[in-house]
Amino acid sequence: MLKIAGLSSGYGRVSVLEGIDLEVDNQEIVVILGPNGAGKTTLLNSISGVARATTGSILFDGKDITGAKPEQVVRMGLVHCPEGRRIFQRLTVEENLVAAHIGRAGKSFEALRSDVFDLFPVLKERRNGMASRMSGGQQQMLAIGRALMAEPKLLMLDEPSLGLAPKIIHQIFRIILDLSQTGISILLVEQNVQLALECGDYAYLLNTGRVRVHGPAQEIAQHSALSDHYLGSATEEVLHV
Predict the structure, then answer these.
(1) Which of 153, 141, 145, 140 is nearest to 47 (CA)?
(2) Which residue ranges form the domains of the chain, and what is each CATH number?
(3) Structure confidence by residue, pLDDT tens digits, 56-108
(4) Largest CB tally within 10 Å, which of 3, 42, 77, 118?
(5) Measured between alpha carbons, how far is 46 from 43 in angstroms, rounded to an integer?
(6) Where is the ABC transporter domain positioned along the sequence (predicted)?
(7) Orientation of helix 109-119 relative to helix 93-100, angle to 10°
């Protein structure tokens, strides 16, 4: 589904990522972990076309999308749900979904909206309410729902649990698992390491712009390198477990 080879990227003259190799298979949940400043968000921005690659390649569904514009990427079915929700606060729930519908060949707006409302009943209840008046958890549901309006083959989620209560966090992770079961591949950047590794199939640990450790999620959860990189005592060696 997604294959990244030797990717280096950043913003202007500032280099953030160096030599990233990463893969996501069909219906797989791949988790990206790492301390603050590791380059996790830049990685998603590079895939979605917000940050430009300086070297390396990005293949999605067999097509080279290196250097593609964000609107081209999303129309191919690679959809980015960014950190901080970034919904349209002054629009209603319904209007947010309308704004996200890109009108390509596929399901109608009504069918996609119905799917979102089935997944998030609270959004149907509040469809005519202002997005700014919803709770943080409801706004995160709207952000994911809005991303689903683009019919993703691969959904990239950046810190979906950020700032949410524990009960809502578990609900969001259940939804992520449900989405995977419908055939959507997931690339997940997440600060809640334990929950991310519990639901993920494969994991990559980034630090200072490079992949330091990667392997099956359950094996990464038991690896000493996980705490080493978060606590700052890791070596520069790349580990494949």
Answers:
(1) 153
(2) 2-77+152-240 (3.40.50.300), 87-151 (no CATH)
(3) 999 999 999 998 999 999 999 999 998 877 888 889 999 999 988 866 667 89
(4) 42
(5) 5
(6) 2-233
(7) 130
Return d(Cα 49, Cα 212) in angstroms, integer. 24
* Closest-CA residue to 98 (of 132, 128, 73, 135): 128
Please spell the DSSP secondary structure of the chain, one letter per residue.
-EEEEEEEEEETTEEEEEEEEEEE-TT-EEEEE--TTSSHHHHHHHHHTSSEEEEEEEEETTEE-TT--HHHHHHTTEEEE-TT----TTSBHHHHHHHH----SSS-HHHHHHHHHHH-HHHHHTTTSBGGGS-HHHHHHHHHHHHHTT--SEEEEE-TTTT--HHHHHHHHHHHHHHHHTT-EEEEE-S-HHHHHHH-SEEEEEETTEEEEEEEHHHHHT-HHHHHHHHT---S--EE-
Strands 154-158 and 185-189: parallel
Q: Tell me: pLDDT of 224 over 80.
A: no
% of residues, the chain, pLDDT over 90: 68
- How long, in residues, is the chain? 241
Q: How many CA atoms lie within 13 A of 46 on its CB side?
A: 34
